[in-house]
Write a structure and sequence with these properties.
The protein is α+β, with helices and mostly antiparallel strands. The chain has two domains: 3-121 and 264-283, Rossmann fold; 124-260, Tumour Suppressor Smad4 (Sandwich), CATH 2.60.200. The protein has helices at 13-28, 37-42, 68-78, 104-112, 189-192, 275-283; strands at residues 3-8, 32-34, 61-66, 84-89, 117-121, 124-131, 137-144, 147-151, 159-165, 168-175, 177-181, 204-210, 220-223, 227-232, 238-242, 245-250, 255-260, 265-269. The chain has a six-stranded mixed β-sheet, sandwiched between helices. Strands 7-6-17-14-9-10 form a six-stranded antiparallel β-sheet. Strands 13-12-11-8-15-16 form a six-stranded antiparallel β-sheet, with no helix packed on it. The longest helix has 16 residues, at 13-28. The radius of gyration is 20 Å and the shape is globular. It starts with a strand and ends in a 5-residue tail after the last helix.
Length: 288
């Protein structure tokens, strides 16, 4: 018997319907099923709800029913636990999802039988201080599969950010923001900001400025063993987002530290997933 978590795109009725069907099928097969409360409510399965802080405990696998955003949600919930994640594509682009909805039962059965591969993807550890009760702050740690972004909270000014690498000051950026991404995240926000594409099999950190107001406007790839620190130097503050989710408002001199986690995300695969072929398909790069 296995314990399987389901992550569901709440805005797609076909995904919530599939969640109900799969949860009933898994239960009939003798497995336990759990969902975060929001997903359980959307799928009309309130008895399967488990609080986010307890979601990963004792979990054997996660199945996401949505797009790449649902996989990011799964990573947020399971963190560095190493729980295998199978993506069923109810989305559009589907860089990270592995199977189509019609293949979900077969794929889950194979996964639970051990008939699958695992592709490891580097996670980003993001450390910062967040407001706490009593007016103070407390250290927080978050994990990202794609990126952490420090950006201006309003469009009326350029943000100034001091960047240090392994404790040594590198430079001060004037830009709309800075993106620190993993190789997986190189095809997300960083790409739209002009960053390079990095094969996700690599381990590296990618620093990309957003609309820089300075001569040095290039992305920079640094070793995965590096620790990047971004210090807010603007008196109007900044905001921190991790994998598209806004986490904190930052004040002047607040620091966000980014480093490679020693524990990867583990994505379930069936057969070889050749990155250049996925890239070619998603971007319509036909042979010339």
């Amino acid at each position: 018997m296995a314990t399987v978590g389901l992550i569901v795109h709440r805005g797609r009725p076909e995904a919530t319907a599939a969640a109900r069907e799969l949860s009933e099928w898994l239960a009939a097969e003798g497995h336990q099923v759990r969902m975060p409360p929001e997903e359980a409510a959307a799928a009309s399965c309130p008895d399967l709800a488990v609080a986010p802080e307890r979601f990963a405990a004792g979990l054997d696998a996660v199945v996401t029913l949505g797009g790449d955003g649902s996989i990011l949600r799964a990573v947020e919930l399971v963190g560095e636990s190493g729980v295998a994640i199978l993506g069923v594509n109810f989305g559009r682009m589907g860089y990270l999802t592995e199977v189509a909805p019609s293949e979900a039962r077969t794929a889950i059965g194979r996964m639970l039988a051990g008939d699958h591969g695992i592709q490891e993807r580097m996670l980003l550890t993001v450390e910062f201080d967040a407001p706490a009760g009593g007016g103070g702050s407390e250290p927080r740690r978050q994990f990202a599969l794609n990126e952490a972004v420090v950006e201006r909270p309003a469009a009326s000014y350029a943000l100034r950010l001091g960047v240090s690498i392994n404790g040594e000051r590198f430079s001060t950026y004037a830009a709309d923001g800075l993106i620190v991404s993993t190789p997986t995240g190189s095809t997300a926000y960083s790409l739209s900001a002009g960053g390079p594409v990095i094969d996700p099999a690599h381990r590296a950190l990618l620093l990309t400025p957003v609309s820089p107001h300075m001569l040095f406007d290039r992305s920079m790839v640094v070793a995965a063993e590096s620790r990047l620190q971004l210090e807010v130097l603007s008196d109007r503050g900044a905001v921190l987002s991790v994998d598209g989710r806004r986490l904190a408002e930052l004040r002047e001199h607040d620091v966000v530290a980014c480093s490679a986690s020693p524990h990867p995300a583990r994505l379930v695969t069936f057969g070889a997933r050749r990155f250049h072929q996925v890239l070619k398909t998603k971007f319509g790069l036909n042979d010339r």
